[in-house]
């Protein structure tokens, strides 16, 4: 079956069905022939028994003495001579030597030895009659050919004879029936069967041809080729050639062709996409690794910055404390200066004598006046450095050093002022005439000290504000460090995801690698 083509497989059931139909029809015709022949034999047996009953009837009359045996035989023969059944049925009588005793159709043969007579086929049927009748059964059928009576030209036709023996008189009673009508009916049945068979075969053949053509149009080609193509596609060979007919747009082969084209394009696209994904994921993984390293470095830098800011905050707080203490000292100096100013007024006469020392006091006063100006500049520098504290923490330390230096200079100047004031007090007693000028000078000193106190207070407030700002910056840096740490973790997760995606893309490429796609150059 595997070596048969699709068309042969379509025709095979029809041929088998037609063969079975032919066998069945022929068998039916032959069974009909056998049935008719059997019926004919039964009719012959029944007819022969009727003839035998006639003979026995007259033999019984002879035994009863009603007729002599010769008369009984003659009357029996005459009665048999007149018996007819059917269209051409009759009886003839032979003796045990094949001599004709009575023949209603050929009376001239009566008394003639017919043992040597043969039909056109060369069969000695009369001798066969005697042989069958004298056999163990005492009766039987004999086939021979014999012309139909009244038919011209005479033609021998098949005939079936039945013979039986009446032993007391040594008679062989024979009757027969022509079989040409049965055979003609059989042949006619065969002719009709063959005609119907040919007609049915032609119609079924046309139907199968139309079905075959419709199936081929639906499939679009040989199903064996379609099966081969589907097996190749299932095996991953998308470069297999799909043969389609010109103008075919709706057949199975066209659908397979469209499917193969779509699968070919899809696999190529998957291959390209998988390759691009593999390349992109490799780049992403490399970038993530680099970003992870940089993020870790940034986190370390932020930790160092946070530590530096903590140290700077402590320094700024210390400066603020020092500034507050200096402010308190300046306040005390202002108070003391006020008391000194009152004392100077009381010692007007003595102060007038310290005129010679006023120049020195004036210089010191100039120094004291220069201190606020420089302190203001340093305060501005400190504000600038505070804004830049996140990157340059050392600049503020320099400014703080300068502030401390100025404080020392202010202390030295104050000391000198104290010494001069002491000297002036001694001279006051001698220079009362200069008291008025000294009083005015003391007023100016008081104002200057107050201004210094105000500036120092502002520096303290600015230092506190700077401390709070640095604390906020430190908090922000700490938060940035936490975010950076989380970013580093996310980067590592992204790197792992990119690596997993690269592995999946490689697996996808391996999965589609089994497909052999069409190379179109």
Automatic annotation (TrEMBL):
Q: Which GO terms describe its molecular function?
A: transmembrane signaling receptor activity
A Pfam family of the record is MCPsignal
Which keywords, in A-to-Z order, does the entry hold?
Answer: Cell membrane, Membrane, Methylation, Transducer, Transmembrane, Transmembrane helix
Where would you find the membrane-spanning parts of this chain?
186-211
- Write down the superkingdom of origin: Bacteria
List the signal peptide residues.
Answer: none
The protein's predominant localisation is: membrane
Q: Where in the cell is it found?
A: Cell membrane
Q: Which GO terms describe its cellular component?
A: plasma membrane
Family assignment? Answer: Belongs to the methyl-accepting chemotaxis (MCP) protein family.
**Protein name, per record:** Cache domain-containing protein
